[in-house]
Amino acid sequence: MLKKAYRYDDETVFYFDAYDNKYVAIGGNLAWRLNNPGLLLSHSLYRIGYHGIGAYHQYAIFADSLIGKAALRAWICSTKFCDSPLIELAKHYQPNNPKEYLKQLCTLTGFTQEIKPKSLPSKDFEKLLMTIQQLAGFTPENKQAFLLLPKITAKFYSTNRKIEFYLAGYVNLLTKPQAIEWVEAHKLDAVLVHKNNGEVYLRSRPGHHLDQIRFKQKEYGIEQEFKNAIREAGTAKKGQCLWGFINGLLHTPGRALKSASLISRLADGQCVWYLVNDVSHSSGDVLGQLAGHHSETVKLGAQFFKMLITLSDQSPSQIKPPIVVITHSQGALIANLALTRLLLEERQRIRVFTLGGAAIVPPDAAHPESHNYFSIADIIPRLTASDITIFLLELHEGMKTGLTTEQVIEQLIQKDIETSIDTQDKKAIDTFRTQKLQQYKKTLNQTSNITILEGDRSGTWEHAFIAPCYQKTLKEIIDKHK
To answer: Order of strands across the sheet with 191-194?
Structure first.
């Protein structure tokens, strides 16, 4: 339910609900913008028991048109108009020329001038209400102009101020000029703060300011920063690859910076952008993501990819710099889900490399060079991507003994028959065998961009990003692209 409303200008009304969400009614006719079908005056409402949520000059603003229609009904049924000829209504709506209004009212309704609202049967009374609304200009057109304004969810911001994007909701990634334009066009719930030196910056709207979109610095008060969705390590260098990184679970901001800085050092100090994923204590996010839930981090991850694409497009080089995103552990899960929120042509521009990933990025999910690596001693892929990982490990071990892929698959099928089929019926066994063969062939196709790392092990079990096998692979990826 809308709780407050304010006139911004002659064409715009702002509405606010109980949760401080902001809506805009823009365009259309005045009666529609005010949810006031009869253009009732705000000072006359107390007599009929209805209260507006704001005022537009002398006119009341209602929470919705149904309340406005009910107020109009009650107002006409009041003692002033109910038992009086229609000329009294005409005097209210057109005091300078009531006879003209009365003529229009009678022509449209077919009523005589002497008739009184009290004497009208229900059907004719409804006709009177509809005609008053029509003459007040209330029509259902342009309802699409009543919009819930998205807030700025996060900013993608570089400390050197060369990069500045704002995320409207979780869908639209805007440059600073675009975000300012959206605020001024009443498409974004934020305010513009003008510094004394002439600089303009964006801030969230203070709760006590409802109708302004522009402030001077001293008027705004204490600054409210937006959540930062990215951080950076290293220094941007001309012509460099666009490096991205998404860390896994149990990474504090300090550990995430350490990992991103390691990537930067291997890339000769080049800038690395990394997604904010500070999940140092709770695994709830991971469990939801494993179930396919698009958490806030996943949504921000999709915009992170879009930001990298935009930066690549903005490069003055004729050949756009490639986008390479390194992920570790949960970072692969975030990237895998985030990719599904992008268009095909966007996904194909992002090279994703997973190290010990909690998910396998499929061959067709991103750029063809994208690849998954996991150590034979890493427990995480076995637990989170178990079907495909265990199949690949079985295939790997079997081929080490000299078996072909077909022979390993036949062994797996035979094992499945022995453990799952409790019948000697040849037809049933053959049907089961055919189904399992199709299943394994499908899984085999999904392993074309997966490599098992067996050498450079640091122990019986390993998963850390700094594990020697992952660091060796990371260096190879960077050397290929830097």
So the answer is: 200-203, 191-194, 214-216
pLDDT digits (tens, 9 = 90+) for 330-372: 999 999 999 999 999 999 999 999 999 999 999 999 999 999 9
Strand 146-148 to strand 59-61: parallel, antiparallel, or no bridges (unpaired)? Answer: unpaired
> What tens digit of pLDDT does each residue of 195-254 get?
888 888 898 888 767 777 887 877 776 666 788 999 999 998 888 999 999 999 888 899
201-7-53 Cα angle (round to 5):
115
Q: Say how many CA atoms lie within 13 Å of 301 toward its Cβ.
A: 29
pTM of the entire predicted model: 0.85
What's the CA gap between 293 and 64, in Å, rounded?
35
Please report where in the chains the tokens 């498409």 appear, as a residue. 187
**C-alpha distance across the termini of the chain, in Å:** 55
Task: Pick the closest to residue 366 from 331, 328, 338 (CA basis).
Answer: 338
CA–CA–CA angle 429, 434, 440 (5° rounding): 120
Q: At which residue do the structure tokens 């756009």 appear? A: 320
The answer to whether residue 152 scores a pLDDT higher than 90 is yes
Return the residue matching tokens 């034979």.
376
CA 231 to chain centre: 20
Domains and CATH numbers, the chain: 2-144 (no CATH), 150-220 (no CATH), 230-384+453-481 (3.40.50.1820)
What are the b/e assignments for 53-86, b being 16+ CB within 10 Å?
bbbbeebbbbbebebbbbbbbebbeeeebeeeeb
The model's pLDDT over 368-409, given as tens digits with 9 standing for 90+, comes to 999 999 999 999 999 998 889 999 998 988 988 999 999 999
The pLDDT assigned to 479 comes to 96
Helix (H, G, I), strand (E, B) or coil at 246: strand
Within 291-404, residue ranges assigned H as helices are 296-313, 330-339, 344-347, 379-384, 386-400
Residue % of the chain over a pLDDT of 90? 68
Whole-angstrom distance, CA of residue 123 vs CA of residue 105: 16
Report the alpha-carbon distance of residue 198 to residue 137 in Å, rounded: 43
Measured at the alpha carbon of residue 67, what is the angle toward residues 61 and 73, in degrees to the nearest 5?
105
Q: Nearest 5°: CA angle at 247, between 246 and 250? A: 155
